[in-house]
## 1
Amino acid sequence: MKMAILLAAIAPLLLVNCKKQDPMATQSTPPEQPEAKVELTNAEWKEKLTPEQYRILREAGTEAANGEVYHEFKEQGTGSYFCAGCDTKLFSSNEKFDSKCGWPSFYDPADAQNIVTDTDFDLGYARTEVRCKNCDGHLGHVFLGEGFNTPTDKRYCINGTVLKFVPDSVDKE
Ligand SMILES: [Zn+2]
C-alpha cells in the first residue's frame, strides 16, 4: 500500500524525465498519436532526443548489439512499442520474438501503415531499411526468409533505444 502511494507520487516525475532517458523509455500510458507528419529541424530533434536516439533516428545509426536495451527488451512483458521521436505506435509484444540476433526483433509491425521501408546499400549489399512513417526516423532493418519459425518469416531488427515501451495495463484488483 505504501509502495503504491510512493509510486503514484513519483510517477509524474519519472514521466517528465523519460524523454531524455536511455536505453529504452517506458511509460505507463500510451502516448497520444500524432495526427500529421512530425517535421522538426535538426536543432529541434537534438533538443527532443538523447544523443543516441538522434544518432539512430536522424542519422540511421545502430545501437550496440546485445546491449542493455536488448536485455531489457527480452525481460519486458506484454505491451506496445512507440516511436521515441513522434509517439507513433509501431510494434506490439504480440509480434515480438527471440531471434538471438542482439537487437529487438518483431515478425511484423503492430500497425503496418505506420512503417515505411526503403532499400539501402550502406554495407555494399541491399538491405531494407525500416522507418517511422510519421517522423521519417530510422528504426532498423527488415530481413526476409531467414528460416525463423514465425508466421511471416520476417525479422524486423529494431533499435530499442528509439522505442518507448508501454506495458499492458495490469489493473487487476
Ligand atoms: Zn516516429
Note: Residues 83, 85-86, 88, 132, 134-135, 137 surround zinc ion (CB under 6 Å).
## 2
Amino acid sequence: MKKKVLIDLRCEIDLPYPMFGHGDLEYTAKYLEQEAKELTDFIRDHRSRDRYGISIIREYRDLCSFCGTTYEEDTDGMPLCCDKAIQEWEAIKSNKVEAINEV
Ligand SMILES: [Zn+2]
C-alpha cells in the first residue's frame, strides 16, 4: 500500500531571477547565489537573525546525451532509452573486455 510519509524539509525563498540567461541554469544558479548572499548580508544587519542563511540547491538528474530522456539502465547496466545509448554502451563494454584480455 502506498503511504505518504514526511521524510525531509526544505525552505523556499523567492529571489529575483535574472532578466536574461534563463536557458543557462548554471548562469542562473550563480546569479541566484549572488542574490542569496546579498539578502543574507541584509538579514545579518538586523538583530537576532544571525542564524539565517540562504542556499541555492542544484538538483541534478541523469539524462541520455543522445535522446534527452531520463537515463535508466537495466540490472546489467545497459541503457533502456534508445539505440544510440545501447550502441555506445556495447562499444564501451567490448573495449573493456579487449583491455582486460590484453593484460
Ligand atoms: Zn537515449
Note: DSSP finds two helices and no strands in the chain.
